[in-house]
Specification:
The complex is a heterodimer. By secondary structure, chain A is α/β, with parallel strands linked by helices. Helices cover 35% and strands 16% of the residues of chain A. Chain A folds into three domains: 201 residues, Rossmann fold (3-Layer(aba) Sandwich), CATH 3.40.50.970; 161 residues, TPP-binding domain (Rossmann fold, 3-Layer(aba) Sandwich); 184 residues, Thiamin diphosphate (ThDP)-binding fold, Pyr/PP domains (Rossmann fold), CATH 3.40.50.970. In chain A, helix 1 packs across helix 2, helix 3 packs parallel to helix 5 and helix 11 packs parallel to helix 14. Chain A starts with 32 loop residues before the first strand and ends in a 27-residue tail after the last strand. Chain B folds into two domains: 101 residues, Alpha-Beta Plaits (2-Layer Sandwich), CATH 3.30.70.260; 73 residues, Alpha-Beta Plaits (2-Layer Sandwich). The model of chain B has no long low-confidence stretch (mean pLDDT 86). The chains are: A alpha/beta, B alpha+beta.
Chain lengths: 599, 190
């Protein structure tokens, strides 16, 4: 295909959102001779880094010495586990749209980051992870705290660099941020051997490194012929549907999406990461699709004749059995990543480029449409099977989420962990704003939530945004990175830390109940859970517990009085709650399990 | 043109336990993929990773510097499902270190492989061996009192034919370079 041109000269334009360090006059410290460690600090300053999540150790001790000595323009946040650091950088990146930065030592410091790097890779989150390394002459000798970090992280990074000469430090750092931020974003690892941090050279921060990474090409401008074709397909469609992914949040294309949907009256369903890209109080919103999406969104997918995928990658949790998915639909795929096209689902028209640019190009070519018959059909599905849960006087997680939505009015950044509560948070919060929902989708990393919420809170504080951060975890995932409570307490981050405690690894329990004859193998956490209120108090964080709907409303109201510090809320919810509707893994979307409840 | 696997070949691969994707048996072909790569640390690893994580066996990989010493050229030969290979090629294009990627089997191309072959000889069959090598335009590059080493260059089919011909004489050792391949230049007006 012609747009897959691979000629080195085919790069056009400057990638959008790039250039924190461009167009500036001579940077301070230019031409001064200094150590690699100081160059590192000055390079981060030049790059415009505001927050670094890190943990010191032997290989990077020189950098930490320089941070103490130079008092740089960025803030260093001492996290309590490197995994927490990487998730915090992800949360920071997702909340602000800026690249998150992590600094850790060699060996275990680096390997502890692996989960976070893999998570960022799956969810296209721009982070740069700096790892210490043993001195170059010792690499490969099984030196103390040596790990082949580049080798270990190769298949979970967008790119990686090892700085083997101090002269290469600045361009590699510049290139790392450029690569992480542009195109389809992703994690970049920069490995820093200790002797390079001690070696000296003159500081010179490049603004343009394209000649150093000439194989890196980002096509942001869509092919006009493809855009015209997409417009013709939209004009012909009678039952069009927009299927919106995280790419729209990432590209800041929510206003263009809203305009397109309204102009042509096309209903919108979003993926887990697409939540927030289209306001769910809009009548055209169908909420989330896929395994735990709404029944009506999935019905719309199954009956649409045109599926317009924008910044989405046709994940298996969205499609289920591919052969049976969207059987009547022609597919338009708008994406920045050429490798995503026709990967899982055959696409009839690929519009490659920045989705914001692509939508902008498409908008004038699309005429207002009459889709009322199609919208009526969807409305009937919505009435037939809305999202619902049992109202039996006991405390259900869905009720908690609804209350959090009510008190915040949707003006909050919600971070969720992985499992049942994640799906309820996706289904019941009804997101209004782009970047207001942060979760671990692709990798499904339990323990993601608390540190990611911490990173998001740092990001919002730095941007001067007075939005509350709501961290919603289950009892299983919360314990996996609970150590970061100390950091949240120290910085008095105003996070509402919600623990949905059902005493089970709920999602696994649900599968065991539905597909494994109710053999609840190793999912009961009652005997190993801490007292969450006491745990929070041990870190100096106020905490409250609710066991009934009335108590839940009460503690939420009280928690919202606290705006200058964190507060933990534990909700003891029914243990047997299930996430419905559900498409069993690998099943056809038409075989969705819906549940009828006593209202 | 790509070497299409016949049903016979698929059966044979299955017998030998090699991966054949039965659903798409008819879409499985041999592909020759050319990659121009930054000539530095770790670049090759990333390319190979993309094939190995999909379970593709690389039949041969040939790497060498190009006329530009900062660029190396890879020729990868692999057999697999066309759709998946197409996708792997797209992923190769995403690699920061990959300057150019091309599936040569989609085009007209020339390919060559070099074989070094050490065989036993006796005074009686020495002339026959030399004659075979001559027919294949091979050369003798090393000789001892009972072994001879031949160098033969050509398309893989020719190299295979030469190997088959020499097999009965007693092969001591073989070394093959793997294929190197290049697109034919476009001839205008033809």
């Amino acid at each position: 295909m012609e747009q897959h041109s691979t000629r080195p000269g085919s790069m056009t334009g400057t990638p959008a959102g790039d250039g924190q360090a461009q167009g500036q006059p001579a940077l301070p410290h230019t031409g001064v001779t200094m150590t690699g460690a100081e160059i590192f600090v000055r390079a981060l300053e030049a790059e415009g880094v505001k927050v670094v999540f890190g943990h010191p150790g032997g290989a990077v001790i020189k950098i930490y010495d320089e941070i103490a000595r130079l008092k740089p323009t960025f803030e260093h946040v001492l996290v309590r586990h490197e995994q927490g650091g990487t998730h915090a950088a992800e949360g920071y990146a997702k909340a602000t749209g800026q690249v998150g930065t992590v600094l850790v030592t060699s060996g275990p410091g680096a390997t502890n980051c692996v989960t976070g790097i893999a998570d960022a890779y799956m969810d296209s989150v721009p982070i740069v992870v700096f790892t210490g390394q043993v001195p170059v002459p010792l690499i490969g000798n099984d030196a103390f705290q040596e790990t082949d970090t580049i080798g270990v992280t190769r298949s979970i990074t967008k790119h990686s660099f090892q700085v083997r000469r101090v002269e290469d430090m600045t361009w590699m750092i510049r290139a790392a941020y450029h690569i992480a931020r542009t195109g389809r974003p992703g994690p970049v690892v920069v490995d820093l051997p200790k002797d390079v941090l001690l070696a000296e050279t003159t500081f010179q921060y490049p603004s343009d490194v394209q000649d150093r990474i000439r194989g890196y090409r980002v096509h942001t401008t869509p092919n006009p012929a493809k855009v015209e074709r997409a417009a013709r397909m939209i004009a012909r469609a009678r039952r069009p549907l927009l299927y919106v992914g995280g790419g729209v949040n990432g590209a800041g294309a929510a206003p263009e999406l809203l305009e397109l949907a309204h102009k042509a009256r096309i209903p919108v369903t979003t993926t887990l990461h697409g939540l927030g890209a289209f306001p769910e109080d809009d009548p055209l919103s169908l909420g989330m699709l896929g395994m735990h999406g709404t029944w009506y969104a999935n019905q719309a997918v199954q009956h649409c004749d045109l599926l317009i995928a924008v910044g989405a990658r046709f994940d298996d949790r969205v499609t289920g059995k591919l052969e049976a998915w969207a059987p009547h639909a022609k597919v338009i795929h708008m994406d920045i990543d050429q490798a995503c096209v026709s990967k899982n689902v055959w696409c009839d028209c690929a519009v490659l480029g920045d989705v914001k640019e692509s939508l902008r190009a498409l908008l004038p070519l699309v005429d207002p449409k009459d889709t009322q018959a199609w919208l009526d059909e969807i409305a009937a599905w919505r009435a037939e099977c809305p999202l619902a849960y049992e109202h039996d006087g006991r405390l259900h997680a869905q009720f908690v989420i609804e209350q959090l939505r009510a008190i915040s009015g949707g003006d909050a950044v919600v971070v969720s962990d992985v499992g049942q509560h994640q799906m309820w948070t996706a289904q019941f919060f009804r997101y209004k704003h782009p970047r207001s929902h942060i979760t671990s989708g692709g990798l499904g990393t339990m323990g993601f939530c608390l540190p990611a919420a911490m990173g998001a809170a740092f990001g919002l504080r730095e941007q001067g945004k007075d939005l509350p951060v709501i961290s919603i975890s289950g009892d299983g995932g919360f314990v996996m990175n609970a150590q970061e409570l100390g950091v949240i307490a120290k910085h008095r981050l105003p996070i509402k830390i919600v623990v949905i405690n059902n005493q089970f690894l709920g999602m696994v329990r649900q599968w065991q109940e539905l597909f494994h004859q109710e053999r609840y193998s190793q999912t009961n956490l009652a005997d190993t859970n801490p007292d969450f209120v006491k745990l929070a108090e041990a870190f100096g964080i106020e905490a409250m517990r609710a066991t009934s709907p009335e108590e839940a409303e009460d503690v939420i109201a009280r928690a919202w009085q606290i705006t200058d510090r964190p507060v933990l809320l534990e909700f003891r919810v029914v243990p047997e709650g299930m996430v419905f509707p559900m498409v069993p893994a690998g099943a056809a979307t038409d075989d969705m399990i819906t549940a009828r409840f006593k209202e | 043109m790509p070497d299409t696997l016949t049903s016979q070949q698929i059966l044979r691969k299955q017998k030998m336990g090699e991966p054949v994707y039965s659903d798409d048996a008819e879409h499985i072909h041999r592909h020759i993929v050319m990659v121009l790569l930054e000539n530095h640390l770790g670049a090759l690893n990333r390319v190979i990773n993309l094939f190995s994580q999909r379970g593709f066996n690389l039949e041969s990989v040939a790497v060498g510097e190009t006329e530009d010493p900062t660029v190396s050229r890879l020729t990868i030969v692999t057999t697999g499902n066309d759709r998946i290979i197409k996708q792997v090629i797209r992923q190769l294009n995403n690699l920061v270190d990959a300057l150019e990627v091309e599936d040569l089997t989609e085009h007209e191309y020339v390919e060559r492989e070099l074989l070094l072959l050490k065989v036993k000889y006796t005074p009686e069959n020495r002339a026959a061996l030399m004659e075979n090598a001559h027919i294949f335009r091979g050369k003798v590059v090393d000789i001892t009192k009972d072994t001879m080493t031949f160098e033969v260059t050509g398309p893989t089919k020719k190299v295979n034919a030469f190997l088959g011909l020499m097999k009965p004489y007693g092969i001591v050792e073989t070394a093959r370079s793997g294929r190197v391949a290049m697109r034919r230049a476009l001839v205008f007006g033809s």
